[in-house]
Amino acid sequence: MSENPNETKLVNFAMANGTRRKIINFLADGCRSTGEIGERIGKATLDFHLRILQQAGLIELEEETVKLSEYGKSFLKNKTEKVEEKTADFSQAKPIEIARIRQLSPCIADSSRLRVSANMTPPLGGILKLLEPLFPRSNYSDRKDSLIIQKGEIIITIYGSGKVSIRMIKNEDEAKEELESLKSIINEAIAKGVVPAPREKIKVDLTEVYKYLPQTNCGKCGEQGCYSFAIKLMARQVALDRCTLHKEPEYKSNHEHLQILADYI
């Protein structure tokens, strides 16, 4: 397989998913039947995952038999599932404390959920960007000096100034748990002085996200239309599950594609 940028993107796209990484590792010892793989990772979306891996040139599929391609073998040899760590400059950082919740109000997008504000002391300031790799679904914004973390429907935003905002929380107890977890993860990294190596990022285009939405503009997600929803999705201001139509059988394939794209947003 050549180092064509589009082909490289296909490989990264394929390997961004945990299920497909399990399939590749399962094939390391030799050929497997689709039945064996299905028993290991589940049969519901097996065909979809195999198709993605095949398109990326990582596997060869012949009838009911699956094996690594030569490129797949080479890829597996040179890659490792272990997350490397690197030393981070936390010399000026001090362990943080999170002050009590100072605001609790209904979310605009869903009034049954809450929006929470709290303060982090001391403010993380310049080291905030270094913490991005600690959270699997996160994105640092230089412009806003903020780190956005998504955990399911919950969206956490940490600002360099020390402000912390959490949206889509069920109740105050859940908010306290999330804040305590946040504090623990950050303080552990500061104490060790290490963070995981930055994840490779692939740019996802807005039109690509919109393409896989129903495009019915039904408004059930709370947005004016699917394009508005795509914008919010790209900004991590809404979760994909807010689109209820995507749960319908006719949109199953599109939903699976968007779940993959969401890993890159």
Count of helical stretches: 9
CATH class of the largest domain: Alpha Beta
The CATH homologous superfamily name of the largest domain equals TATA-Binding Protein
Task: Show unreliable segments.
Answer: 1-5, 80-84
- How much is the radius of gyration in Å? 21 Å
CATH architecture field of the largest domain? 2-Layer Sandwich
Strand content: 15-25%
Q: Helices and strands: which structural class? A: alpha+beta
Q: What number is the mean pLDDT?
A: 81
Largest sheet: 7 strands, antiparallel
Count of the separate structural domains: 3
Task: Give the end-to-end Cα distance, rounded to a whole number of Å.
Answer: 26 Å
Protein name: 4Fe-4S domain-containing protein
Keywords: 4Fe-4S, Iron, Iron-sulfur, Metal-binding
GO molecular function: 4 iron, 4 sulfur cluster binding; DNA-binding transcription factor activity; metal ion binding
InterPro entries: 4Fe-4S_dom (IPR007202), ACDS_complex_subunit (IPR051069), ArsR-like_HTH (IPR011991), HTH_ArsR_DNA-bd_dom (IPR001845), WH-like_DNA-bd_sf (IPR036388), WH_DNA-bd_sf (IPR036390)
